Amino acid sequence: MADVLTAQERLTGSLSDNGHAQSQLEASVAGSQHRLDALDVELGKLDSDIQKTDGQVKSSKEQVAVIARALYLQPDSLLVQVAQAGGPQEAVTATSDLLSAADRADSLQRKLQADLSRLRSDREKRQRARDEAARVLYEQSGVLDELRALLQQQQGTEEKLAGVIQRARGALSATGAQATLLGGAVADQIRLDERTLVAEAEREAWSEAAIWARVNHAVPPPPPSSGSNTASGSAANIQPDARGSTFIWPEQGASTTQGYGPTDLWFEPSFGGFAHFHTGIDLVSSDTRIFAASGGVVTAVGHGSSGYGNYIVVAHAGGYSTLYGHLSETMVSLGSTVNQGQQLGVEGSTGMSTGPHLHFEVRLNGNPVDSSPLLPSRGHAG
User: Fold this and answer.
1) What is the CATH number of the domain that holds 352?
2) Mean pLDDT, to the nearest integer, of 13-25?
3) Distance between CA 293 and CA 316 in Å, rounded?
4) pLDDT at position 141, please?
5) How confident is the model over 313-332, as pLDDT tens digits?
6) Among 41, 146, 295, 302, which residue's CB has the most CB atoms within a 10 Å radius?
7) Overall number of domains in the chain
8) Are 11 and 61 within one domain?
């Protein structure tokens, strides 16, 4: 019952955060649409200017051709030119006028050609800007659709949780023979519904983290090529192993108490065709400090007494994300950049936990994956 109440409380907070993010994104979509419209207007004006200038270039070429033809048709004999012009001075003036007109027409043509090249270059730049604006708008619209869908899912989960709570309270209020007869069946059904809904809430937590990263353009830094990134005062001195792993163990000197894969624990969600599946690994260590397995951006920090309890999600390069669950303390905030080996929190037993440990989970493009191939050999676990 406590797990359901906590999940409902966390969902209420998520609904509020989701609604706020949706409002922000709607404003961003409106801004992107306005920019796209403005660029379309600029492109239309540039197209008009290009068409006009291109016409002027063609006209100037025709003028140059006419002048060149007139010069070409002039008699070779100076006496003939003088006779046609009416005198020596008139002949010189006529020839000079033609040459000046040719120079002016040629200069105008070069200027118009330069203007046309500049206009075409500007149009190419505006077109690239327009294409980028359209891409951003398309991406934002897609994320907005995802946010709206997630909001509907969260609202549905919240309604279902409210139903479970109502049934649980009804079962608790039953007395006598009715309680004896129905108590076991009702309790089993409530526990099943609780497991299902808490799993849904956890999936929605992952979805919210992924959407937050996209909305805020969180681009994690690339993992280090060698050595270990250390954060001042609180970093694990752990080296990647010879096979080139870029992840490190999130807890030093840890033992694995539960691995990745199918399990008999009733509260684990179904996955991969199995009724109960542990989507991470559980670690226990006398050194309870929890470190970032790789550098990245914090996309979720959750607190509660159900599911993952107090948890942190970090997005990494290459589509990877890591989750650190059941923490007794979190030491980073949403949106902060963390280095590999930086302390994130302290091992605990919050949420749906069987005792003090770290639930460490790796996802690739949102799907749970076995972290074993990504981690160094045990000799490098610290």
Assistant:
1) 2.70.70.10
2) 66
3) 10
4) 85
5) 999 988 899 999 989 999 99
6) 302
7) 2
8) yes
